[in-house]
Amino acid sequence: MGTAAVGSELAHAFAADRAAVLGAVLRRTGDLQLAEDAVQEAFAAALRSWGRDGVPDDPRGWLTTTAWRKAIDRMRAEGAARQRAERVGIDRSQETIETVDVSSAEDDLLVLVLACAHPALSHQAGTVLTLRSVLDVPTEAIGHLFGVSTAAMAQQIVRAKRKIRQAGIRPAVPEPAEIPERLTTARSVIHLLLTHGHAARRGDTATDLGVLREALWLARELHHVVPADDETRALLALTLFTVARAPARVAADGSAVLLQDQDRTRWDHELIAEGQDLLASVPPLSAGGSYRLEALIAAEHCTAPSPEETNWVRLAALHGALVARLPSPAARVAHAVAVGEADGPHAGLRLLAHLATEEEVEDMAIFHAAAGRLLRTAGEAQAADEADRRAREATTNPAHRTAMLRAARRAQPPARPPTS
């Protein structure tokens, strides 16, 4: 089999089976770092073996067995194979894992998310560990989601892994009484995964549809586990609204399509209706939750017949309430845009000016893009052009940069015909 074909099969197996393989090995060893290393080695071995012998009939089973053997090799190399083998209930002479159920990658994914939401870990430690080790989100992207450098985030992940090892945390579905204390972290993981998929930071496309589908699956499963939990229901609604608009957010060349330019007939209106039904069953705001506000904001955009008919007054109020609960720079930028649309561009620009005095905004593409939008509406074309340029420079994804450049060109006045 050719290298390209093997690479394609491996890419598919990585996406479809990695969680199942990791979960199977982790359940038996109780050591996340060991399981991760073994799985990585199994995929490397597959690249060599499958190219030579062909893709096996059961790729997941092959990968799981190979990863388990790699784990045993590592335990033996550490000189503690007998003790650890006894602890995980295996015979050292047996190097296969037919007794391990690897039939459901989805089940393993949910188990791993809940396991990493263990109360022995801090909320942030459990969140970053799950994003990196379970959901394979790049360290750089996680750092961006938390507003820290890649190096700082790498250190957080190392510390979280050390903590999970020292605490002896083993992956298992929590008992019903244990689930509430894990919900905050589990929801945060899904929300950040949704954010990561919605606005991919790198690559040649504006949105990662595969990541969005994974976020939707996890949100559905978590809602199934705790159907009476209002914040989980609101998170599922928010995820449905986000995924519903995703196809229209990507142009044929992979670049982003701004909300006001999207073909709304391409939105998945069945998902939107499902999200509305869920949101309608969430009671009025309760203390400590922000997902309902985010879902209401998304619903407002999803139900507006056209960009011109968007209810910006209501959106400004919703964004203001969200900032009161979650005053992140991104939330404050979105609030400024909504206020600028509702009350005039200068009102929004004043909010952005306040933000600039309190936060480092030089590398915030969304800040400069918002400033460009409001400045252009205010008739300050030269300042708007400069803000747009700074937004493009701060953008790491070429797909988003292309969309910004296209919008900037569209905003330019037509050139005057030459005079004779």
Task: Write structural notes for this entry.
The protein has 420 residues and is mostly helical. It is 68% helix and 0% strand. The protein contains 19 helices and no strands. Helix 13 runs antiparallel to helix 14 (312-325) and helix 16 (345-358) packs antiparallel against helix 17. The radius of gyration is 24 Å and the shape is globular. Mean pLDDT is 82; it is low at 87-106 and 414-420.
Helices and strands in order, then pairings?
Layout: H1 3-29, H2 32-53, H3 59-77, H4 81-88, H5 105-116, H6 123-134, H7 139-146, H8 150-166, H9 180-198, H10 209-225, H11 230-245, H12 269-280, H13 291-303, H14 312-325, H15 329-343, H16 345-358, H17 365-377, H18 381-393, H19 398-411
Helix pairs in contact: 1-2, 1-3, 1-5, 2-3, 3-4, 5-6, 6-8, 6-9, 7-8, 9-10, 9-11, 10-11, 11-12, 11-13, 12-13, 13-14, 14-15, 15-16, 15-17, 16-17, 17-18, 18-19
